[in-house]
Amino acid sequence: TMKFKWSINKDVIPWTYRLFMDRKTLAVANAELSKAQKDFDEEITRRRQAFADMIDNWDDDQIADDDEDNPYLAKLHKFGIGAAVKGLFNDIPNLRESFINKEYDMGYYPISKLSPETQQLVLNAVKQRYKIQGYSSDGNGFTEDNEKAFTTGGMLLDVVPDELGWKANEYRKFAGIGLYINDIFFQLDPLLGDPSSPLNQCRAQVDLQACEKNIPLKDSWAQSESAWQMAAIDESKKLEESFPTEPQPDIPDEPDLHNRIVVKPEEKEWLGLVDFQAAVAQASGLAVVSDSFKMTQGYAVVGNTEMELKDVMKSICEGYRYNWEKHGDIIEMSSKEWFKKRTTQIPDEWVERWEANLKKRGYMSIDDYVQIAMLTTAQLFENIETDESFYKAEIFDSAHSTQIWLLRLYASFSAEQKKAMYSDMGLPTMTFSPDQWALLRNIYTEPWFKSDGVSAVFRCSIADDEKKIPKYTFRLFNAKTGNELLNWQVKMLEYKEPAKPEPETTKAQDKKSESTTQPATGSQTKATTK
What we know:
By secondary structure, the chain is of the alpha+beta class. Helix content is about 45%, strand content about 15%. It is built from 20 helices and 15 strands. It has helices at about 25-55, 60-65, 70-80, 80-90, 95-100, 115-135, 145-150, 200-215, 215-225, 225-240, 275-285, 310-320, 340, 350-360, 365-375, 375-385, 400-410, 415-420, 435-440, 505-515, and strands at about 5-10, 15-20, 110, 155-160, 175-180, 185-190, 260, 285-290, 305-310, 320-325, 330-335, 425-430, 455-465, 470-480, 485-490. It has a 4-stranded antiparallel sheet with strand order 3-4-5-6. Strands 12-13-14-15 form a 4-stranded antiparallel sheet. α4 runs antiparallel to α6 (about 115-135), α8 crosses α9 (about 215-225) and α11 (about 275-285) packs antiparallel against α12 (about 310-320). The longest helix has about 35 residues, at about 25-55. The radius of gyration is 27 Å and the shape is globular. The termini are close together.
């Protein structure tokens, strides 16, 4: 299932076993990864180019006549997004090319340089987005303070809010435009791309429904859950046409595959692949064995409906981009993109060491924080976000957060630079290497701060809270005036004991109580999942 071979050595006690990927399989995996990355980049560029071409010819009057046939175009028209993006493309040099070429941001741009018409178009689009998003209890979500910041500040355009390329697990978000104005983030739209995309069409329909019915966006999503899941599956199929994946093996016809079952995953706020696998095992009486990539994204439409086992497996595997086989009473599942996902794996020993240090100290040390911050986004998602001890630490949510870049900058300092940074004099930015300047610009993007010759000072101080947990404060000062430019605080993650499992006696009593008040449902056959 995991594309490994194995060997055994019986000449030692106890016997030892070795799992390994043979050189031929490894070479094929690396070749597939390289091709997939190239195809992926080309597909993103194609979608963005198509969107940019559409914006170049954007005409609200013309779109209004056709918006009934295309929910995505209707959304761009009714929410003012199309006109706003066209204004930004026209007013800001190179923004269109940056959008197409997947650059992360366009840096600081004063709002005052936008034409009055574009300023108003963008403001109206942001207000509409806030309204349907339901950012405040009154349903408007865009306050007077927001509008004041918007109209008086400078603007940092983030044209790609999610890290893309092969570093990211969730690659459905192909493009978006966000505006950082006076340190406040205004989302213009989270997904700008191909109007023919099933996912774009569904997202647009949900947004339009929330607006027309004047209901919170989350309620609109709840009402469209089935359509959303089907759109996600359709999008997955379209992606497979562009990117190489492991082909689905032929499944010999067997009587067991025609057994009709009802798959009922455990009720949770968010269902994952493992929940559907457990439900299939329970309902079918077969064992389900699978690879264990934790952050597998997907959808399955199989709940509460009696279906043949082969159709259940087809639906789950199409939604999660998995292959499946049946060998006797065992169903084996493996990712179609295992050659990509294997790059998200890190040694268990790393995570175990970080956890042991966390538990021993009672908090995460700065050195361990830095090591974790050096992981790619996909590695953070796969190994840290899914770990019980770490998942609440917001510092690991995104490789674009200020603190991630700050810790990566910290990691780049030599011992002499760190000593200067902790001193009263501070660390002059004049001593930074080009790579360190690039990291600093991910944190501080004022226009005058673009030259390598800028004179500034970087300092760090450490303070303890009442629990003796260190809090690091990083400050950047103008060396000429002494004025503080920015400061960032990083508080070390506190260790919290995992919740204790419920005593077995209590569980048994609860089950006994449930059995006397509720009818039994589903299969009672015991099955195994791994």
